[in-house]
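Hello again,

I reread your note about wanting to compare the complex against the isolated chains. To keep things tidy I'm splitting this into two emails, and this first one only covers the full assembly. Below are the input lines as submitted, including protein chains and any nucleic acid or small-molecule components. They are followed by the predicted structure of everything together. The single-chain runs will come separately.
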Amino acid sequence: MNQNKYNHDKKLIALVVLASSLLLVGLFYSIYVGIIIPSSRHGESLGLAKMDVQQYDLIVDDGFELVIQNCTSCHSAKIIVNNRADREGWLTTIRWMQQTQKLWNLGENEYAILNYLAKNYGPEKKGRRAQLSDIEWYELEEGN
Amino acid sequence: MKTDRSNTEKQFDAHASRRGFLKNASIATLGMILGAEIVFGNKLPKGLLPIAITGDQNPVIPGKHSELITLNDRPLNVETPAHLLDPDITPTDVFFIRNNGLPPEITDASSWMLEIAGESVIKKTSLSLRELKSKFKHYSYQLTLECAGNGRNEFDPPAKGNQWKVGAVGCPLWTGVRLKDVLNHVGIKGDAVYIGYYGKDTHLSGDPGMSPISRGVPISKAMEDESLIAWAINGEDLPAMHGYPLRLVFGGWPASTCGKWLSKIVVRNVVHDGAKMGDYSYRVPKRPVAPGEMVAYDDMKIIESMPVKSLVTNPKTGAMIKKGTILNIRGKAWAGDNSVKRIQVSIDFGSTWQNCNLKDPVNRLAWQPWSTRIEFPKKGYYEVWAKATDDEGRSQPMVVPGWNPKGYLNNACHRIAVKVI
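Full-complex prediction:
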């Protein structure tokens, strides 16, 4: 019994150590890659391990890097991810931020940023009223 | 079995150690990991890690219920799931947060000053928090605060901004002094038309010269009995996220009029022109427009009283009940400056409606609790829809009301799903 538990614990510790070292190696590798090729276009080569890329909540696609650089210093990426608009709509928001919220001139990057936003965060048809969705069903007892 | 267990534990440990590591890392190190500098990282509210790093859908917000829904973590914009609004007085830990900028860090409010200025005050005056509390009579009211953009997520074409669902509303108990008592004490000129506020929050860009938001109300609203300069919510000091140590509270109007971290009130002889009073912020078209239509600025007007609305707060959506169970349905209803006259529910997608018990508001501008009991006729999928009608006969629409460029004032009836099994 005890011996078994000991073995099991040993295995666990080994796994944890292995997992942590993999993680550290991954982290340092990603920093390393980030320094070597800072201007490449994809998140993976931006210096982010795959897992970290997802932490941005932003879709990894052409222009991703520009969006992180230009759009996440004032507010988090959540405000971007939660919004939907066509190219013109995104441009309106950018102009509004430039006129009233101190967003800088995006220069030649504006084209790529708009491409990215319109492609990945374009409008979805919702109609006049959507179905109820994401319902988590649970049992409710009498006397609720 | 064994492998299963250790796999799960391995994942958990890997996650935990990574989180632990990141929590202890400095902003600069985090920036290094992310491969990009976190500009203004020093302005992150305490206790929060940027979502980019934690990947948390719902970061832990000090003093807040863990089931709240975070729409944005910087600035904090957090809404309440409908079922947490079931208590008649909204508990502070579930009350929604709409920050436009970064809250100030205030640990000692003993030297806090409120300045009353503007072209329509007779004499510019400064009052300390202590003077406010000692010179004027205290009042407590339950006042409904709702973000004008509550429900924005339903508009089509989509409207930009925080994609609020139903929970950017609440009705806590506020304590403070009447704004009118303070204005009368200072003395205002006959030409006063508006008041505006300034707070100590900072603009997201970090520019100290910019105010993130500076809105206000017409003088008539400012002079109402229930318009407060408040320091307490539910009997306690305002938490940092809700404006500590001082804020304005105007029940029934867009909550953006209720300036937080209040340091200055200006009495204006024109409509106040602070940040987010102009452009399209908190404005709707003067006339009905087609979905997606371009609306000229001159055709927009400032939102004042909020429309009639209600929520089903019990049960939580998704309830499965046994056939024969009588379901207790409860909720809240409110109507801006008006009161609610009738509340009805439908379990057949709006074909028939039944009246519910509706309480009077505890005071003007407080929401009204309502309730009913329903027995469902047979097994199956149901939706409970609630529809309130105000004292001028205006009801909530069942579909999304008039589209507007910034997605305000969606008061479509609330729906919850119920299965009878």
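For quick reference: Confidence is low (pLDDT under 50) at residues 1-33, 35-55 of chain B.

B.
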